[in-house]
Amino acid sequence: GIFSSRRIERATYRDIGVRFVAANLHPDHDTIATFRRTNRGAIEAAFAQVLLVARETGLLRLGVVSIDGTKIDADASKYRSLRYDRIRALREQLAVDIAKLMDQAEHADATDRDPQALPEELARRETLKAKLDEACARLEADAKAQAEAARPAYEKKKAVHDAKTGRRGQAPKPPDDEPPPDRQISLTDPDSRLMRRSDAHEFRQAYNAQAVVCAEGSQLIVTTGVVATPADAPSFADTVLSMEHTIGLPKTVLADTGYASGQAVRDLRKKGIDPLVAIGRPCARRPYDFRPHPAAKEPRRITEPWRLAMKARLETTEAGDLYRLRKQTVEPVFGIIKSIMGFRKFSLRGLAKVTTEWTLVALAYNCKRMARLQAA
């Protein structure tokens, strides 16, 4: 795969296949980059049109699908990511530095000295302070939004606690609308987050790219999504339901334990979708639980009714055989995109633009996959 706009421009002169696709035209690299950045609607429409063609030709059957996510590096360095407490300290220091430079500039004007170096130093610090102000405001706004979202659950827990009079126990804590000191944000791409890559066990500035793949033989990507959180569960239902207005909803969706969310399962079932979600083993059955010294606390148990029901269902032969399709459908797709097509890092910045770029990558994958299926 070729993802650089400059390399694509060169390929329109050197690569016969690219020249054929480009109708022997040679768009400038800036034109290519601008198109990728500003044509989200056209890219999404083309993605949906390819899926409709695949269904009409019999290549796509939308019954069982698999969902998974993979971490894709953002166009930002993790070393440009700062903690909330560090941002506040730097803002205070920059305010002091700017005030000193202003005093030096006034003194230079009064003594007729040449203050050429002062404007550059002043502008550099003011630019950095503006970035820090924006990052700090963003963290505080996100914290307030999360606190408001968590308030209904807190009120419910508090009401249950207050109703249980005579019982000992700590009252639930209200949601805090202040960012924790260790909350981090990138100055280069504020939408991206520090995420751990499971293969390398290291933290990278990245996005969580989601893909829903047909599990009935075609391995075509039927919908995509990008989230700025390492967890998969919060976007589970929204990602699957986004198919409704493009290609239609599936009958069954297969997901690993990272998507285990009671609310998402209920939302999918309301739409007539049957989710099969893996449920982790209780702590008492894990191999490392058999230690010579007993644990100080009671190990965590699976107690939620929907989890127990899902776990019992997956232990049946029919559901177990169906769930085994997940690994052999969605995970190879990520392997092809990363290892064969070579897409491991986003070129654009910001969640909206990154989502468009991921849709474009999925569109390219589907075109390659359809060509392979038709040739078989």
| CATH homologous superfamily annotation of the largest domain | Ribonuclease H-like superfamily/Ribonuclease H
CATH topology of the largest domain: Nucleotidyltransferase, domain 5
- The SS-based structural class is alpha/beta
3D shape: flat
Largest sheet, strands/sense/barrel: 6 strands, mixed
Alpha-carbon distance between the two ends = 22 Å
> What is the domain tally?
3
Region (Disordered): 147-193
Protein name: IS5/IS1182 family transposase
Organism: Komagataeibacter xylinus
GO molecular function: DNA binding; transposase activity
What's the SSE blueprint?
Blueprint: H1 5-14, H2 16-21, H3 29-38, H4 40-56, E1 64-73, E2 81-83, H5 84-110, H6 117-163, E3 184-186, E4 193-197, E5 202-214, E6 221-227, H7 236-241, E7 252-255, H8 262-270, E8 274-277, H9 305-314, H10 317-323, H11 330-340, H12 351-375
Parallel strand pairs: 1-7, 7-8
Antiparallel strand pairs: 1-5, 2-3, 4-5, 5-6
Helix pairs in contact: 1-3, 4-12, 5-6
Structure in words:
- 26% of the residues are buried.
- α5 packs antiparallel against α6.
- This protein has helices at residues 5-14, 16-21, 29-38, 40-56, 84-110, 117-163, 236-241, 262-270, 305-314, 317-323, 330-340, 351-375; strands spanning 64-73, 81-83, 184-186, 193-197, 202-214, 221-227, 252-255, 274-277.
- It starts with a helix and ends with a helix.
- The longest helix is centred in the middle third of the chain and has 47 residues, at 117-163.
- The chain is an alpha/beta fold and 376 residues long.
- It is 49% helix and 13% strand.
- It folds into three domains: 1-32, no CATH class; 39-77 and 190-375, Ribonuclease H-like superfamily/Ribonuclease H (Nucleotidyltransferase, domain 5), CATH 3.30.420.10; 81-186, no CATH class.
- The strands form two sheets. Strands 1, 4, 5, 6, 7 and 8 form a six-stranded mixed sheet that branches. A two-stranded antiparallel ribbon has the order 2-3.
- The mean pLDDT is 86.
